Amino acid sequence: xxxxxCASVLLMGWLVMAAxxxxxxxxxxxxxxxxxxxxxxxEAWPEGGPPKIWQAQGLGExxxxxxxxxxxLFTQGQHGDQQFVLALDAATGKKLWETPTGxxxxxxxxxxxxxTPTVEGDRLFAMAVDGTLVSLDVxxxxxxxxxxxxxxxxxxxxHWGYSESPLIDGNNLIVTPGGPGAAVVALNKKTGxxxxxxxxxxxGYSSAIAAEVGGIRQIIVFTAQEVVGLxxxxxxxxxxxxxxxxxxxxxxxxxxxxxxxxxxxxxxxxCALLKLSVEGxxxxxxxxxxxxxxxxxxxxxxxxxxxxxxxxxxxxxxxxLETGQVVWRDRSVGKGLVTYADEKLYLFSxxxxxxxxxxxxxxxxxxxxxQIPHGAxxxxxxxxxxxxxxxxxxxxxxxxxxxxxx
Length: 406
Prior knowledge:
It contains two helices and 33 strands. It has helices at residues 2-22, 149-153, and strands at residues 35-36, 52-57, 67-69, 72-79, 82-89, 95-103, 118-120, 123-127, 132-137, 143-148, 167-169, 172-175, 184-188, 194-198, 209-213, 216-222, 227-231, 237-241, 255-257, 260-265, 270-279, 282-291, 302-304, 307-312, 315-320, 326-330, 336-341, 344-349, 353-358, 366-371, 384-386, 389-394, 397-402. The strands form eight sheets. A five-stranded mixed β-sheet has the order 1-27-28-29-30, with no helix packed on it. The protein has a four-stranded antiparallel β-sheet with strand order 2-33-32-31, with no helix packed on it. A four-stranded antiparallel β-sheet has the order 3-4-5-6. Residues 1-19 have low confidence and may be disordered.
């Protein structure tokens, strides 16, 4: 009897861990790096693509990605005179709730929210285009707290609106209002109260990450003017770097790996690798290289086994992270986005072409591709891999595909 109980407890624990491992609770996945740890996925797809499990409609306008946690899927949209956050059943695509946030905003290149919700426990955090930040109950969509960052901190929305996905760091929620003395702020995630504020840069379109070097935890943010490393405990400036910043739109999320930060932007700018090292109570950022061989526009690269895979404007490019040397280029599916899972690159072009290729520095090796409808707007939302499924958003529509081996 005891053995049976222990076996049941172990099985339940394994199922909980497996479910958690399959979650994609924020922008670019569990570690904000576009990497899925899932295995056992299809090596290639049938002609016309993998089996479609469901297609949901009613997400509204917007480019917000999807977050998935404990069987629920969360995203943002806009219709009528409202922006909103909504929840779907990840198994069926059925809408569970919808909560209004900010007023509808019209922006060229497509209306609606851009930021992906961030989920932790029973809370969800999301930012609308106008800077409305909400904390919601994941079960009901009920509002825990709400504020407009632009109004509260004197910020101004970038040309295409606030686009970041909030970062949870311990008890803090990190966001970028772009106000004087409040370029970046840390809020108490339970109450929304201010913990610290720092710098006066304008807001960019990138989302923050957290990293630790030599025991110093920092928040790394690509603002409209530069990349800054801020001490996580109080927001003090540790380092800054502006060479990779352009004057139009800094969008890609910084990538941190083993004490190095990879940065990239488009509009003729390029990419840089910085080495972070501790000097006393601060951190120094030293440039390893800067070149124009990787210009991430609206997408963020992924780093796999020392190779950077990303879209340098129109061209899918593989680059050695350590040296900055390009190892191959290919037009692939066309300009788009990339996510990594199970030794494969999941590619999604802005024209609705979906591709599967090997993640190898040996050369571009495509395994499969198919096309989905994309309407009048470009498909600028990254693929999400969770629970043996691939999720693709195209404005009002969300597609769910079975990519698990059987």
